[in-house]
Design brief:
This protein is an alpha+beta fold. The protein folds into two domains: 3-170, no CATH class; 223-308, no CATH class. Helix content is 26%, strand content 31%. The strands form four sheets. Strands 3-4-5-6 form a four-stranded antiparallel sheet. Strands 7-8-9-10 form a four-stranded antiparallel sheet, with no helix packed on it. Helix 3 packs antiparallel against helix 5 (88-97) and helix 7 (257-267) runs parallel beside helix 8 (299-307). The radius of gyration is 21 Å and the shape is elongated.
């Protein structure tokens, strides 16, 4: 199938998708407005770039054929959107794809479109809500998130380095993606977001490379004092030693109920906007929030300190 035919297939699939689309990897121009099944007019920011030359070059190479061959092994099962974001054949295909000679020199958007075209070539026509975002760190080192167009479907974030790959995080009910990253020696800091609700949260993962493989050494997702809903996460130092975190009360979902209710009583209402600020400092293989409170302080006291 030609790239023009693939592009048409993508548009038709998008129009007939039985859910509100949140399309990724597309240009900002609005191509077509269609009526969704919910009765709302959705303006699709969908304009297929002309990558005929790249498609012919890479899909026709032996490496490209191997990528398509791996993708063609993925079964079109009922739980397809869930399985593709962690499917071993998809991961191996991506690992081969990023190592195709010359692929790293392509613009980011063209590289992402090219992989989506490969999935159609592998007979994924019925599931074209699938998308990827590839952030090249350096060489064959990439941060890649896999997602579907539906906000209710899961997604995943991986680090790829040559032939190896490691899962960093998973978003259970929405998009996941990289907002910033910083590589220092054998360490890689990754700031990523999860749109699990109308109040997206940002998290941070510290990765370390041992021999030829990356490992997740620390992830803020497990920290109850990491409040980042509607807020931001920023690097305060080039050596990954300090992080600044801001967030709203909607990030208190990680906090146990008693402490959460006491904080709401202090702030006055649950939609008080950005009200939590914190600094996180590197300690060994992880991070701790900087605090002036004595050891043994209650969770409520620690949260209260972040409001002040």
């Amino acid at each position: 199938m030609s790239p023009k035919g693939i592009c048409l297939l993508l548009i038709v699939s998008a129009i007939w998708a039985p859910f509100r689309l949140v399309l990724a990897n597309v240009t900002p121009e609005c191509g077509t407005c269609v009526e969704s099944f919910g009765g709302e007019a959705d303006c699709l920011p969908f304009k297929c770039p002309d990558i005929s030359a790249s498609f012919d070059k890479f899909a026709g190479s032996q490496g490209g054929k191997d990528v398509i061959g791996l993708l063609s092994r993925v079964e079109n099962a009922e739980d397809y959107p869930d399985t593709i974001i962690e499917n071993e054949n998809v991961m191996q295909a991506m690992s081969l794809f990023i190592r195709l000679p010359g692929i790293g020199e392509l613009p980011k958007e063209e590289r992402e479109w090219l992989f989506r075209y490969f999935t159609v070539k592998a007979d994924w026509e019925k599931e074209m809500s699938f998308g990827v975002a590839m952030n090249r760190v350096n060489g064959d080192l990439y941060l890649v998130d896999f997602h579907t167009a539906a906000t209710t479907q899961p997604s995943s974030l991986y680090v790829f380095d040559g032939s190896t790959y490691t899962k960093i995080a998973r978003g259970e009910n929405g998009m996941i993606g990289v907002t910033d990253f910083k590589a220092k020696g054998n360490e890689l800091g990754v700031i990523y977001y999860r749109e699990n609700s109308s109040h997206p949260e940002k998290d941070f993962a510290l990765l370390e490379k041992e021999k030829n493989e990356w490992f997740v050494r620390w992830n803020s997702f497990q920290e109850s004092e990491w409040i980042s809903a509607d807020g931001d996460v920023e690097y305060l130092a080039d050596d990954l030693s300090l992080l600044a975190v801001t967030g709203s009360c909607f990030g208190l979902g990680r906090v146990e109920e008693t402490a959460r209710n006491k904080i709401f009583a202090v702030i006055g209402r649950q939609d008080a906007g950005i009200c939590f600020t914190s600094i996180w400092e590197r300690k060994g293989g992880g991070y701790v929030r900087k605090s002036k409170l004595p050891a043994g302080s209650s969770l409520y006291e620690r949260l209260r300190e972040m409001v002040d």
